[in-house]
TrEMBL record:
All residue ranges annotated as the Starch synthase catalytic domain in the record: 2-230
Swiss-Prot/TrEMBL catalytic activity: [(1->4)-alpha-D-glucosyl](n) + ADP-alpha-D-glucose = [(1->4)-alpha-D-glucosyl](n+1) + ADP + H(+)
Protein name stated in the entry: Glycogen synthase
Biological role: Synthesizes alpha-1,4-glucan chains using ADP-glucose.
PANTHER family documented for this protein: ALPHA AMYLASE DOMAIN-CONTAINING PROTEIN, GRANULE-BOUND STARCH SYNTHASE 1, CHLOROPLASTIC/AMYLOPLASTIC
Pathway noted in the entry: Glycan biosynthesis; glycogen biosynthesis
Keywords, sorted A to Z: Glycogen biosynthesis, Glycosyltransferase, Transferase
Pfam family for this entry, one: Glycos_transf_1
Ranges where the Glycosyl transferase family domain occurs: 283-435
Gene: glgA
């Protein structure tokens, strides 16, 4: 079975969020199960591309509106990631450094999708499954059915994964003229409330759609930034499959980015060595419990209530708790957090920015991880934390609801219901009280680290879905 994963992110080539982690791991595990899986993504001028060798395997051109675009398809020579990686480069559109935030983003993603289809048609490549990830490639299920040039692929099955339904790729209808020529009688499949909506188009046209947790699928039926009725109406095509983690990269027993490796039997000693290193570097007391936040400073992550959480916890737990914040994002939230780091000289450390190595070290050093998310389709941070014996304190939403069970229910984490600083603080207080008993902490860590959130099970569910479609 030949499967192409289409995405604009893939770790470690280009990462902004959890989408990259999924696309960077799922195909590798599928190949281990006998699936011929590969990733095709836009070319970005980033470190991975500069550090690895690529062959140009194809060239072509097509008109995007009245503009002739030339493209190249590059393949990474060594299959370093455990699967074939293909990059599509288009001078002036798909040859930049950043993934997002360009004014002509719609033109970029249309060109990427057009170039992909042109490439596989020109080279008579017929995958069994085209697996599209998020709205950036949401027009593919429509174009393979209704584009005049690409109807040769109308029997190829398309799977669309919703990683975050809040972002839908809206574009004005003036972009319709630069799409590959299509059957204009089908224009309604592109339209939602007077705009071209690639996410809505994908849900209407794909053979199956998935969400990155079962809980998030249910939530999309109720609130999906205007598409909830569409998700519900197309529910017969839907499957919720929780994301996994790449245990070749996220495993404290073999992680080369942390100070001391450890397993369940050595977790107490291993975490203390990692905590001592981190606390020494950032001026914290290693004898105290360490609560951390890792992620984007964005409203959907609940980061806007993070300053209030810190302002309540530091005085309340003075001399009894350390807090570490690693992240960046919304300028207002970031400025507020920076101000807190200046105000609280004891008990708080902040790193503003993205630092993959430091994130591993924080997971290994921390006792607790807080995730006050408004929206969390799956969430990977809590899965990384559990693997490293770090206990999650999370809002009961989306994938967090599916993957974290509260200790009061016999589980291994702590939950709160609303995006509310007081509720979050109460959950942290409950967690601190519980883990103050060393036996409780040991049992929680063992329970957490014994959980299996590897990609094996989830990759298998995707393969079952593919097989069902091909039958």
């Amino acid at each position: 079975m030949k499967v192409f994963h289409l995405s604009v992110e893939c770790f470690p080539v280009a990462k902004v969020g959890g989408l990259a982690d999924v696309v960077g791991a799922l195909p590798k595990y599928q190949r281990e199960m006998g699936i011929d899986a590969a990733v095709i993504m836009p070319y970005f001028q980033r470190k991975f591309v500069r550090d690895h060798d690529f062959d140009i395997i194809a060239k072509g051109d097509f008109y995007q509106g009245s503009i002739l675009l030339n493209y190249e398809v590059l393949k990474e020579k060594q299959d370093t990631l455990g699967f074939p990686l293909y990059l599509i480069r288009i001078p002036g559109l798909l040859d930049r450094e950043e993934v997002y935030c360009y004014a002509d983003e719609a033109d970029q993603w249309i060109a990427f999708q057009h170039a992909f289809l042109h490439y596989i048609k020109s080279n008579s490549i017929f995958p069994d499954i085209i697996h599209c990830h998020d709205h950036h490639v949401g027009l593919i299920p429509f174009l393979t059915r209704h584009s005049i040039d690409f109807k040769v692929f109308d029997k190829v099955k398309t799977v669309f994964t919703v990683h975050n339904g809040q972002y839908q790729g809206w574009m004005n209808w003036n972009k319709g003229i630069i799409l590959p020529a299509f059957d204009t009688w089908k224009w309604g499949l592109l339209d939602w409330d007077g705009l071209i909506n690639p996410l809505a188009t994908a849900i209407k046209c794909c053979d199956a759609y998935t969400t990155v947790s079962e809980g998030y699928l249910t939530e999309l039926f109720q609130d999906a930034n205007g598409l909830q009725n569409l998700f519900y109406d197309e529910r017969q095509k839907a499957t919720g499959i929780v994301n996994g983690i790449d245990t070749a990269y996220w495993d404290p027993a073999i992680d080369a980015q942390i100070k001391a490796n450890y397993e369940i039997a050595s977790v107490e000693d291993g975490k203390m060595k990692n905590k001592e290193m981190l606390c020494s570097r950032y001026g914290l007391d290693p004898t105290l419990p360490l609560l951390s936040f890792i992620g984007r400073f964005a409203g959907e992550k609940g980061a806007d209530i993070l300053p209030e959480i810190v302002e309540e916890l530091i005085p309340e737990q003075s001399g009894k708790l350390n807090i570490f914040i690693l992240g960046s994002g919304d300028p207002e939230i970031q400025a507020h957090i920076a101000e807190l780091s200046d105000r609280f000289e004891q008990g708080l450390a902040v790193y503003l920015g993205y630092n993959e190595e430091l994130a591993h070290q924080v997971y290994a050093a921390s006792d607790l991880l807080i995730m006050p998310s408004r929206v969390e389709p799956c969430g990977l941070n809590q899965l990384y934390a559990l693997k490293y014996g770090t206990i999650p304190v999370v809002r009961n939403i989306g994938g967090l609801k599916d993957t974290v069970i509260d200790v009061e229910e016999g589980g291994y984490g702590f939950k709160f219901e609303e995006v509310d600083a007081a509720q979050a603080v109460e959950a942290v207080d409950r967690a601190l009280s519980y883990i103050s008993n060393s036996e409780n902490l040991s049992q929680l860590r063992e329970r957490a680290m014994n959980l299996d959130f590897s990609w094996g099970k989830s990759a298998g569910k995707y393969i079952e879905l593919y097989n069902h479609l091909l039958k």
